Amino acid sequence: MFGDIARFLLNTVFTLFGAALLLRAWLQVVRLPPYNPVSNAVLHATNWIVLPLRRIVPSTRSIDWASILAALIAAVVYVVLMVAVTGVDPLALWPTLLIVALLTVVKWGLNLIIWLTILMALLSWLNPRSPAMPILFQLTAPFLNPLRRVVPNLGGIDLSPILLFVIVQVLLMIVTRAAVQLTYFVI
Description:
Mean pLDDT: 91
Radius of gyration: 18 Å
Helix content: over 70%
Family: Belongs to the YggT family.
Structural class: mainly alpha
Keywords: Membrane, Transmembrane, Transmembrane helix
Distance between the termini: 20 Å
Protein name: YggT family protein
Oligomer: single chain
């Protein structure tokens, strides 16, 4: 029971933190202004790890490499702690754990896309004039706009979020299966 609780807490904390780090990198890619409440909260939550890494790894063009590296570091710590909770020595599995950590970062990114898409879809139905809508639209537009060109608009109903949700869910299944098979094979 203690192991289940520890795994749940580790998964929750690290998934939220990893998503915040990836969101920080994505905010820079879509050039979201730093003065809005979402950007401000993400920056404050992640500054403690990203700012020191920026001295080592600078940003290039619109890619925040320090945030991506911080997400990878968080994923490595997460995977090592998850393996340690099971009672296995993480150092014996080091190369495999690095691959699993990379897959974990991809999983966090895919989960972030799902969360943002669901939130945008819900707000578009419940409160389309919400102050969060422009932010969510800007964050999800790079994923939804190509799908909008393919999926027809059915009388004002946009089906592209549903298609994006399905695509990302399939990708999540593939990434999760790969990570689980790597860890089961080694453990």
